[in-house]
Amino acid sequence: MTINTSVSQISPVMATYSRFPITLVKGKGSYVWDDQGKKYLDFTSGIATCNLGHVPDVVKAKLEEQLQNLWHCSNLYHIPNQQELAALLTANSCCDQVFFCNSGAEANEAAIKLARRYAQKVKGTDSFEVITFQQSFHGRTLATLSATGQEKIQQGFAPLVKGFSYLPFNDIEALEQIKTLEPAAILLELVQGEGGVIPANQEWVKKIAEICVEKDILLMVDEIQTGIGRTGTLFAYQQYGIEPDVISVAKGLGSGFPIGAIIAKEKAAKAFEPGTHGSTFGGNPLATAAGVATISHIIDSNLLKHVNEISVYFDEQLTKFKEKYTYIEDIRGKGLLKGIVVGNKAPQIVQKAIENELLILTAGPNVVRLLPPLTVTKEEINEFTKALEKTFQSIEKGE
Ligand SMILES: Cc1ncc(COP(=O)(O)O)c(C=O)c1O
């Protein structure tokens, strides 16, 4: 076999992301380093994934232990870490059983399949519709991009998977349409992340939950970005006084090791019988080792108390920016998922922040999204404040 060693001008990696011109090679806690040895304060956490900071010792130790024993076996056998992680997730939520997969999109895909099977095999109806919301984001597989209420994500992928209707977010009156649509489920984010860091109103969420109970429609919350302590409770729904039937999680669950899951109430979970859904890697020994260490650490170290305290300090610092810079329209979000609404300046601000050794994100063109690790300290927030101040000043001067 001849190996082609010619140097191509084209990147061997597909251009599905427009990447910043830095290469990250190392991380610890709230910091990452590039291949030139430059250190950055990371307030992106790999997009809400490295919730315990980079390379957390507890997760590293558990992964190292598992690496010595068994990396993978199929789901045809019992996997102790999987059992343990499922027990942790169900003991700390309103749900009873877990299905493991490898990403957020796969978790939502499983939720959508579960909703259809619940409607058709448990309830004995022919409904399949899942109601989602405008500006939502649920993933990039065909079904989850069809579930996503943003045209830009769907362009060029027609025909979409049928069976999704998008209602306006936070609009109580529009919920009347649920009754005529007779859906199998409603799927929502409690803070729309990619859509612009928009928290759901309490009253609106409660109304949805009421309709779901009344009509036996599955209430499914997409906690892929809001879950695993991000908003100050293990799951954001715990601040809304509701009990979802299905919770989808991924991102922070493995502290950076790929894993996804749906956690479902028994009444919904029983719609999946042997052979109805599966995944080769889902819940494998390594992924669930990372999950067990992550969830155990959040609970045992009382990390959520820290999140609630530090997010008050974070809010105070962000509010000062709003008072100072007139183009800041709003500061919104929950816990350590925050958005600064900045007109159309978000991409420019994120770009400029890199020069000040700070990594932050956009959520659309109008919002700067901030996702520090849950372990962030006051000193690190002060460092962030200085770097952001410098960034805002450069933007004001038109630099
Ligand atoms: C709310 C929400 N749902 C689903 C997804 C898709 O997750 P993944 O990229 O792991 O497929 C994301 C990713 O950003 C998300 O924020």
Automatic annotation (TrEMBL):
Cofactor: pyridoxal 5'-phosphate
Bilayer-spanning residue ranges: none
Modified residues (N6-(pyridoxal phosphate)lysine): K251
Sites where the protein binds N(2)-acetyl-L-ornithine: R140, S279
Subcellular location: Cytoplasm
Primary location recorded for the protein, binned into one broad class: cytoplasm
CDD domains the UniProt entry points to: OAT_like
EC code: 2.6.1.11
GO MF annotation, one: N2-acetyl-L-ornithine:2-oxoglutarate 5-aminotransferase activity
PROSITE patterns to which the protein is assigned, alphabetical: AA_TRANSFER_CLASS_3 (PS00600)
Pathway per the UniProt entry: Amino-acid biosynthesis; L-arginine biosynthesis; N(2)-acetyl-L-ornithine from L-glutamate: step 4/4
InterPro entries xref list: AcOrn/SuccOrn_fam, Aminotrans_3, Aminotrans_3_PPA_site, Class-III_PLP-dep_AT, PyrdxlP-dep_Trfase, PyrdxlP-dep_Trfase_major, PyrdxlP-dep_Trfase_small
Misc note: May also have succinyldiaminopimelate aminotransferase activity, thus carrying out the corresponding step in lysine biosynthesis.
Subunit structure: Homodimer.
UniProt name for this protein: Acetylornithine aminotransferase
